[in-house]
Structure formats: C-alpha cells, structure tokens
Amino acid sequence: MNEHEIKQKGLLWILANARALKQGIPKTIKGFSRRLRPPESHDAQRRLAEGPDAMVEEARPHEDKKDICLGIIKEFTHSDSHYIEACRALDIPYKVLNISGPDWMEVIQNSGCHAFLVRPSGELSAWKQMFDERLRVISHELGKTILPSYDEIWFYESKRRMLYCLGANNIPHPRTWVYYDRHEALAFADATPLPIVFKADVGARAMGVQVFRERGKLVRWIKRYFKKVTVNCDCDTRNRQLGSVLFQEYLPNVTEWRMIRMGKSYMGYQKIKQGDFANGTKTFNHACPPEALLEFVRHVTERGGFKSMAVDVFETNDGRYLVNELQTTFGLHVEDGLPMKEGKPGRFLFDDTTRTWCFEEGLFCQNELCNLRVLTLLEQLDGSLLGHDSPAESDGLDEV
User: Quick check: pTM over 0.90?
Assistant: First the structure.
C-alpha cells in the first residue's frame, strides 16, 4: 500500500485490517479495531473469498438437469462462496441473489431459480433477524424450496430456540434452565448445585460459555448480565446480549462427538476436550462412530425433519447420548475426506430396506460439504418436480 492510500484510509483503519497483527493483541483492542470498520467487513479471510457479483448466471448443463437453476442467497461476509465453488465443480447453473435490499421479494420471484441455497449470517443480530424474516416468507409464503430448511435455520445461533425444539421433540439433552426474570435467576443461583454452565444465546466454538464453580461469582455475573454486558461470541463486539440467562447442567468426563447428517450421508468424529470444553479446540480424533450413535443421530434428525445438520452429542459414562448443540450452518475443513473407518475417508448410509448401516469409502467433504449440500438440494428438487416429497424413513422414532 502506497503513501497516498495510507493517508486516504487512515492509519487506524490500516491497523484494524492488518491480519498479521491479530495474534497477541488483547481482546479489548481487537474489539475497538472492529468498530473502525463496517460490520460486513470484519472477517478478512472471508472478504478474500468474495464470489461473483449478484445475478450472475453460469449457463452450464448438468446431465438431465440442464433446465434446473439454483439460487445462492448472498451472505454479508461472503461465506456463500463455497456454494458457488460447489456449483461450478458440479456444473450446476446458478445465480447469486442479494435479498438485503427493499426489492428482495421481486429478486426471488423474478430469478427463475427452482430452489435456493442459504448460509445465513449470525454475526450480528440485525443480520440474523433479516434472514429469519425474509427466509420465512420465501419458504412459507412464496413456497420456495431452500436448503437448509427454514425450520433448521430458525434456531441457528440461538441456544434458547434450539432448547425449545429439543424439548418439544422429546430429544434427550442436558438439563437446561432459561430465565428472563432477574430475581428468579438469582434464586436459582442460590440453590443450584455447582459447577453450573452458563451459555450465551448466541455464540459458537465455546464463545460465550462459562463454568461457574463459586456461588459468589455466579451471583455477581447474573446481576451484571441483566444490566448491560457484551458477550464475546467471536463476532462483532457491537452485538450485545442481555435480558435473559441460560444455564446447563455440568457433565464431567463425557465424550463429545461432532456428528453430521447431510441428506443421506452421515459422518462424524470425536472432539478432543481441552479444559472444560471440546467446542472450539479444533482438535479431534478420527474414531469410527458406533452404530448406536449413528442410529441416535438418525433418530434426532428424522424427528426434527433435518437434512443439513451438525449434531454435537455427549456420550456419558453410563452409555447415554445427549444432544449438546445443533448447528445447521457449519463447515468441515478436510477436502481430502474425513477418515472414519480403518483410517479410510467416507460416509455412512442407512439402508431403509434392510435396516442396516453401510460404509461407503470416498471423498465427500469438498468445499466445506457444500458439494453434498448441492446434491442434497437436487434430490429434494427432483421429488418436488415429480409432485411428491422424497421418501421418508419409517421406523419407530419414539424409540432411541
């Protein structure tokens, strides 16, 4: 960058955008630097992955699906770029559509797209609110097919909504309490056994999660949280959460699995715990998921109607499986495939006729699983074009 550009942008702006200086800088300084930039530009790596301009169509035939065009909903930090790369790799015609403007409904209705790929932003509550509102209209009112489904997106980056979904569907999960009343929360803090886990409603990779082992600290935290607090949820520091608290029972010595269902494909690995948490460690063990765990994940996803979901599962010492979190927007940074059986990469498939599981060796993680997402949407689209939904698996889902 030359001297003229430095003067034009300002030294503070340059420092705020310098990736080389990120490591070792205190969080308070990082938060201040983020305030110097527009929220949509806070992630430098995502900015570098910017995709084509909106409404650009790739006229590439794909076997007998040459008349099908998929819409890719543009995302503020350009994480939709993986969808673009997946469509290009699979020779699927697509358009990138911007639904953040006032003409968003006309953009969808006039797009000529048969279905839509979505990766909603959760970094700012305003962005999430926009996607929640507009994707519901696109799915429910306009009757468009989207992946992930709106039901999957609705509780993305909201632990409260996820909790309500788990409870309504009788899916086993750790005991959890949500309070909107400060006095009730303080009464809970006075009586609950310790340790206890606090979770912010929004937050990924263990951000916004704390384990309280001292009652005095827990009480002070609740009093502070109901007044004014900013939770570091690895997004923009201007995004504040207050007015409610969520507590989860502390479960020591559990094994945590990250299980994935994408259409008919099942994958998974063990998370390696560091300290109190396995989330956010970015280290994992390529263990083969036991069949009982695969069946549990199939039960959970079928019960909720989920086709694009990461299921974080606690395995307790007595052999129980509990859902810790559900995430419909996630990636997997293993382009060479996820080793799961005898060191071989691949996926598990459930045979609905024989009621058995089989392992298929191969590479299925390209473009952070977006290749599989595109193929899953095409399968759903085939069913809707033929006038029926994809056949659902039918077994006793009341039994885990």
Answer: no
